[in-house]
Amino acid sequence: MVGSATGRYNGGVASRHAGSNPGHPQGTERTVAMSDWSVLETSRELRRRWDSGQATFGAWVASGSPHVVELLCAAGPDWIVLDGQHGYADAATLPGLLRAAAISRTPAIVRVASNDGPAIGTALDLGANGVIVPMVDDAEQAARAVAACRYGPAGTRSFGPTRAALASPPFSTAVGDDTAICIVMAETVRAVENIEAIVAVDGVHGVFIGPLDLAISIGRPPTFTIDDPEVRAYMLTVRDACRAAGCAVGTFPATAHIPDWAAEGFEFLGLVADGEILSRVPREMLAAARGA
């Protein structure tokens, strides 16, 4: 295992805009030509922020709408997740979604539907900064996810950077390996039990805890408030293992509890989801208009 983040992140560089949004450097225009930046640059900067222990906050998009991605990215999140597990991010929609994120230089990470090599490769080929791989329960599954993010001889990714070659020119297998952020999800008791072995896999850049499935796995009701003591204890166990291994840890708590998890040392926190906004805000506005 590479214990330090420098080794784990393979080529991370110091930021020229310390403490700023990696996608939106201070003093620059938000809308830029593709040739003025690279996905590699934003991947390195996001990893650098995690390495320094900074909490980063992102948006989650399930709708598959490029316009929604543009609107959310205009708010200035540190990253955006395009959801292909419980949403509509797939090979048909990803090019438009990734272009929408690129307008504002927002790092875009795709949650793939499963730990499937071709699906992971497709997301990266289309220009994603990285992937979130769900339901990773042990080191073998983590190693499979990492291998899918890397070209041979170390990995199993097939060469065909359809859009990635445009997003990080000049493209090479080394650039592809350095660009791809690999985050695995810990969502079960088994994953927590195996977490030290999971984070020991070289190439795992972070662990994202799925609080709903983790709660379900121990017979608790799923909730983003994460107020069950046992669920919370499991999450802190994952946090401790990630801290010892030098990789990031994240989750998606209820908005009111985000400062608490940032204080606990979580560096990758989901702040807002498109479905939640699109359902809650109109409901609140209608209630106010109708005097409810």
> Structural class of the helices, strands and pairings?
alpha/beta
By CATH, the architecture is named: Alpha-Beta Barrel
Q: Could you estimate the helical fraction of the residues in percent?
A: 40-55%
CATH class: Alpha Beta
CATH level-4 homologous superfamily: Phosphoenolpyruvate-binding domains
Query: What would the principal axes of the Cα set say about the shape?
Result: globular
Q: Give the amount of beta strand, in percent.
A: 5-15%
The SSE order reads: HHEHEHEHEHHHEHHEHHEHEH
Task: Summarize this entry quickly.
With 292 residues, the protein is an alpha/beta fold. 42% of the residues lie in helices and 13% in strands. Helix 3 (66-74) runs parallel beside helix 4 (94-102).
Explain what you see:
The protein is 42% helix and 13% strand. The chain has 292 residues and is α/β, with parallel strands linked by helices. The protein has a single domain, classed as TIM Barrel (Alpha-Beta Barrel), CATH 3.20.20. Helix 3 links the parallel strand 1 and strand 2. Helix 2 crosses helix 8, helix 3 packs parallel to helix 4 and helix 5 packs parallel to helix 6. The radius of gyration is 18 Å and the shape is globular.
